[in-house]
Amino acid sequence: MSRASQQKGKRGETMTTEIIEGFDFCDCFRQPGSGSGKNPKFKSDLYIRIILASDLKWELKAENKFYEKIAIFRWWRKLKSEILPTYLPVMTLKENNSDTLIALKLQDFLGILQSCKYKIDRAVEENTVIEQNYDNKRSAKEIEYQARRILQEVKKL
Question: Were 28 and a residue from 16, 20, 38, 65 both cysteine, which residue would form a disulfide, CB within 3.0 to 4.6 Å?
Fold first, then answer.
């Protein structure tokens, strides 16, 4: 691989990392040696960690490809030209006897995750408020009970 090609790949990985790091629920960094090592832990270009909630986490390994021309982008431009701007463009890709993949803009993918995180955070907040209200109601009942008990003691005097 030529030095210019390596530099182009590094610039692309850095750009992708910066986009992902712009979202507070994501961590992203380039792998040491950018996937050239023999250790499978470091075989990919990027390591991405997404944390939407304490029990909703993903660890991703990304392989970045930055080429002058890739056929998928012709299909992508066609898709975008055929849909209304209010729709989110998503492509499905499949070769014979292989997995089905989806393609969408990185910002759209992160936006979807950000919406999910917002909804999760709101649900947690609402649940916390419900628990606090329950605790407050219980405390009010305990105070009322104690006040009645004191009043009964006072009446006995």
Answer: 20
Contact of 42 with 29, CB cutoff 8 Å:
no
The first and second tokens of residue 4, run together, are 């210019």
Task: Determine the residue type at 101.
Answer: L
Whole-angstrom Cα distance, residue 137 to residue 142?
A: 9
pLDDT, one tens digit per residue, over 3-60 is 887 788 888 888 888 888 888 888 888 876 665 656 666 677 888 888 888 778 888 8
39 CA to centre of own chain? 27
Cβ contact 49:41 at 8 Å? no
Question: Domain boundaries in the chain?
Answer: 3-68+105-156
CB 50 within 8 A of CB 114: no
Bridge partners (DSSP) of residue 127 are: none
Distance, CA of 44 to CA of 37 (rounded, Å): 9
DSSP symbol at 22: T
pTM of the model: 0.61
Q: Using an 8 Å Cβ cutoff, are 51 and 63 in contact?
A: no
Positive/negative CA dihedral, 68, 70, 71, 76? negative
